[in-house]
């Protein structure tokens, strides 16, 4: 199954994802819910099986060979992540359970440092993970949350950003890419502006990391957080990358084993990075699986990947013109392969249900962005999200399915 539109060999990629061979009620699976989670290539599944069958053991503390091997694999995985995002030092990579936990670690510390009069800047397109967390940190500290608006197309208003950013801004927390709209934000220039005001900058990279070549040093932020499962890796593992100088004295958030230097009955002192922010037994298999996913992803030609995803999006936008009453929600100038839409007279949940009956998996609802849906005046949307293993035929099937759904509901 090769495509003519780009020189990307999508057939060879698909062959590495066993789940894509599945059928649902006699229909071949067409998986278009990649913004929620991506499928896993055989290389990742093999890495998990190999870890559990060959060297399962606890890390860092064992006096035996299995523990040594597990520790090596685990710490090599950290190096893989550090190289992947071009971190200046490997100890800047902190394992988390995912993007949400990464944001919460920083928000917990930030809440201790914020005070009345301080401001935190977020955007109207936040996922709840990067909104509720800052809302609560502001409530706890008396700081004020400021929200940068978007325009009707889903572009962030740079004019409003410039007005809202001030000497009182202590933190800018914003998404690299919007999960609901696909908007790619100009994070490098906005980070530079915020840094010039002395603010810390956190980038929510949940959607950005699998669609581009992230270079944390080039971005210039203080924190970049992401999840393994949106990057072809396992669930339950993610990364908080933080600038070493900032993380070194970041308030500890979880206490226990691994993160201490010394302990008495009366008190304790904290270890060095990265351990000081990683209490307890980590998700060892998850870290190894995530590194396998990164190795797998990095073997692809990133420019071909980007061109392929854009070709899928363009094809979808062309076919959308043929669906009566269909409106695309999110038409930013710079966007990835996320197609959020509503169809007049049909509830998004019904679209999702009727597509599912045809083996087509999309996501419907508010996409963990209720305030954004309110801003856009929709109860929710249907969202098809494309990635490297999707084909033009998948997009064709989506629109064939939509036509059928519309007919059934007419
Ligand atoms: N931020 C964005 C932009 C997301 O799309 C998501 C998940 O969809 C998250 C944060 C939360 O990620 P996780 O559930 O993996 O912690």
Commentary on this structure:
With 410 residues, the protein is an alpha/beta fold. The chain has 2 domains: 140 residues, Alpha-Beta Complex (Aspartate Aminotransferase, domain 1), CATH 3.90.1150.10; 252 residues, Type I PLP-dependent aspartate aminotransferase-like (Major domain) (Aspartate Aminotransferase, domain 2, 3-Layer(aba) Sandwich), CATH 3.40.640.10. It is 38% helix and 17% strand. The protein is built from 14 helices and 17 strands. It has a 7-stranded mixed sheet, with helices on both faces. A 4-stranded antiparallel sheet has the order 13-14-17-16, with helices on one face. Helix 4 runs parallel beside helix 5, helix 11 runs parallel beside helix 14 and helix 12 crosses helix 14. The longest helix is centred in the N-terminal third of the chain and has 20 residues. The radius of gyration is 22 Å and the shape is globular. It starts with 9 loop residues before the first helix and ends with a helix. The model has no long low-confidence stretch (mean pLDDT 96).
CATH-scheme architecture of the largest domain:
3-Layer(aba) Sandwich
Write down the overall geometry: globular
Task: Determine the fraction of residues in helical runs and give it as a percent range.
Answer: 25-40%
Please tally the helical runs, counting DSSP H or I stretches of 4 or more residues. Answer: 14
Level-1 CATH class name of the largest domain? Alpha Beta
Distance between the termini: 34 Å
Biggest sheet, in brief?
7 strands, mixed
């Amino acid at each position: 199954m090769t495509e003519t539109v780009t020189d990307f060999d999508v057939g060879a990629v698909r062959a590495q994802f066993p789940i894509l061979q599945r059928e649902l009620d006699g229909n071949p699976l067409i998986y278009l819910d990649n913004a929620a989670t991506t499928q896993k290539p055989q290389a990742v599944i093999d890495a998990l099986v190999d870890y559990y069958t060959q060297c399962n053991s606890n890390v860092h503390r064992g006096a035996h060979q299995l523990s040594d091997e597990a520790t090596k694999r685990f710490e090599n995985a950290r190096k893989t992540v550090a190289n992947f995002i071009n971190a200046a030092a490997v100890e800047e990579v902190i394992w988390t359970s995912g993007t949400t936990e990464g944001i919460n670690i920083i928000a917990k510390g930030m809440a201790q440092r914020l005070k009345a009069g301080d401001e935190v800047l977020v955007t109207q397109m936040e996922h709840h993970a990067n909104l509720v967390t800052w809302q609560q940190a502001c409530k706890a500290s008396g700081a004020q949350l400021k929200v940068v608006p978007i325009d009707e197309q889903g572009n962030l208003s740079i004019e409003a950003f410039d007005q809202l950013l001030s000497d009182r801004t202590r933190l800018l927390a914003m998404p690299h890419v919007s999960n609901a709209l696909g908007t790619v934000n100009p994070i490098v220039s906005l980070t530079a502006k915020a840094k010039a005001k002395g603010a810390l900058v956190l980038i929510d990279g949940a959607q950005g990391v699998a669609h581009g070549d992230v270079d944390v040093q080039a971005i210039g932020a203080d924190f970049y957080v992401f999840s393994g499962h949106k990057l072809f890796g396992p669930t339950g593992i993610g990364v908080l990358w933080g600038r070493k100088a900032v993380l070194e004295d970041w308030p500890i958030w979880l206490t226990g084993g691994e993160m201490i230097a010394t302990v008495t009955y009366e008190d304790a002192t904290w270890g060095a990075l990265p351990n000081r922010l990683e209490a307890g037994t980590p998700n060892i298999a998850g870290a190894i699986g995530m590194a396998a996913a990164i190795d797998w992803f990095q073997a692809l030609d990133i420019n071909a990947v980007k061109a392929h995803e854009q070709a899928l999006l363009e094809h979808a936008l062309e076919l959308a013109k043929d669906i009566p009453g269909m409106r695309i929600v999110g038409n930013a100038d710079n966007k990835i392969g996320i197609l959020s839409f509503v169809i007049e007279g049909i509830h998004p949940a019904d679209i999702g249900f009727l597509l599912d009956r045809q083996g087509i998996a999309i996501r419907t609802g508010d996409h963990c962005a209720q305030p954004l849906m309110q801003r856009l005046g929709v109860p929710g949307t249907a969202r098809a999200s494309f990635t490297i293993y999707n084909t033009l035929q998948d997009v064709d099937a989506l629109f064939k399915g939509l036509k059928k759904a519309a007919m059934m509901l007419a």
